[in-house]
Amino acid sequence: MLVSLHVKNLALIQETEVFFGPGLNILTGETGAGKSVIIGSVSLALGGRADRDMIRTGAEYALIELVFALDKKEQADRVRALDIPVEEDGCVILQRRIMPGRSLSRVNGETVNGRLLKELSGILIDIHGQHDSQKLLKPKQHLEILDDFAGEEAAALKRKMKESYEAFRKTEKLLLESSMDERERERALSLARFEAQEIEEAQLREGEDDELEARYRKMTNSRRIAEAVGAAWELTGSESEGASSEAVGRALRELSSVSGYDDALAPLVEMLSDIEELLNEFNRSVSEYLSDLEFDQADFAQTEERLNLINRLKEKYGNSISEILRYQEEREQEIARLEDADAYRERLQGKLEEEKAQVEKLCGELSRVRREAGERLSELLIAALSDLNFDQVDFDVLLTKKERPASDGWDDVTFRISTNPGEPKKPLSEVASGGELSRIMLALKTVTAAQEDKDTFIFDEIDTGISGKTAWKVSQKLGLLAKTRQVICITHLPQIAAMADDHFVIEKNAKNGSTMTSIHEIKGEAVERELARMLGGDELTESALANARELKEMAENTKQY
């Protein structure tokens, strides 16, 4: 669950921190106080789009920190599977620093990218924004909801379906490409033969280009090499006046002539003798190198020509000899295919039929799983919608077959509903109002919560378009969900706020010429005053306070069941 939220220098927030409880956390406040900024900061921390305008005026950066407690072993294992360390106490600390031009995210001290944040978000939390209910108007969303509800059986079939469909499409493409007329085939065959023969005649050998480059480099720099090596030979030889070999020999003779007078000179004589021997050996090796340095001009021309040939082949067929040889192998396979085009197409056609049969088999299995899941979802959702003041509601999941399969099967899914007795069921996009969509989404969340590992649900104004008795029903449903999950909810309705296990007020105040948004928890009489404000307006009358107390008592009594 989400333990705490710390926000600094974000929009109108200078710095604030809030600690959430495990049940139903309610956030209330005047319109424009910054409630959505508080919840929006959670989305930002989890990789939402950020820009410099979000940084509070005068600040260098904005900072958001979330602390999650992983109470389930499965959840912790999934986080570790992302190579994210988890503290011994099960804590995950997520920080995002937003700066002009860039942002930096860390999880438990390690820097992470946006893709990883998105995957982590899918494990930790479910955020329902103000406009997310509109997604229910899109049939593509219905398919995703149904497949999520169907669980691992559908997920496994979809993985197999994707692999089979991609193989089918690849074979289909190869078959299409093979359907060329005779003139095109002869032209392609001629080109493939020419390219394969050109590489074959070159008789390339792995590593040959590196050897030739080294030899060519030595040949083109031979004069400079000869001058430098010759100078080294003269300076270390014994035939040149002032050479080091002559000097060392003279020094050895001088030292040897007096070594009999002091035993301590013997090691020095031995060392100098080794130096003279090593110098002479070096001089002989240099002399041999010089004699081998000479080369035939024809050898140079042959090396240069071979290198030019290899480089031309690299320009045409690959950046290395291994790539050129691989290209030759591909050309030879193409030649075999083109020479035996009819048999090749026949093999492809047979393979395509097999893969098509496999795709259709998986489509059928996936469709069966979806139909069964749709029946269960319809039954559960009708019950959940009835609890949300939908009288005599009827709902079903309609599956229709596409003209041809796709990577997710051949089903189009449509959620249909009838909210009036005797009226036929119609797609949600044709009959559902804004308030009805909000309740349908809440019903879906309560029904599908059991299929999700997430411990935290956030609802930003789930009460859109509802009031009165319906608002109380929504309040009860949120309270029910909060018995097994942490729920954080922004609301304008006192009926929903009264159900809070922990109540937070968001306020906007002007101080020292600056406007700031802050959040703090309220309890006892402060809760009653906030509910009275939501019920009656700016002036807190005794009757408004009495109504607030009654509303809170009703909510507390409801929680007992």
Write out key terms for the chains shown.
alpha/beta, six-stranded antiparallel sheet, six-stranded mixed sheet, 15 strands
Side-by-side strand order of the widest sheet = 2-1-4-5-6-7
- The share of residues in extended strands comes to 15-25%
Largest sheet: 6 strands, antiparallel
Round the mean pLDDT to the nearest integer and report it: 83
Could you tell me the radius of gyration in angstroms? Answer: 40 Å
Distance between the termini: 24 Å
Count of DSSP E strands?
Answer: 15
What does this structure look like?
The chain is an alpha/beta fold. The protein is 56% helix and 19% strand. The chain is built from 19 helices and 15 strands. It has a 6-stranded antiparallel β-sheet, with helices on one face. It has a 6-stranded mixed β-sheet with strand order 8-12-13-3-14-15. The protein has a 3-stranded antiparallel β-sheet with strand order 9-10-11. α16 links the parallel β12 and β13 (486-490). The radius of gyration is 40 Å and the shape is flat. The model has no long low-confidence stretch (mean pLDDT 83).
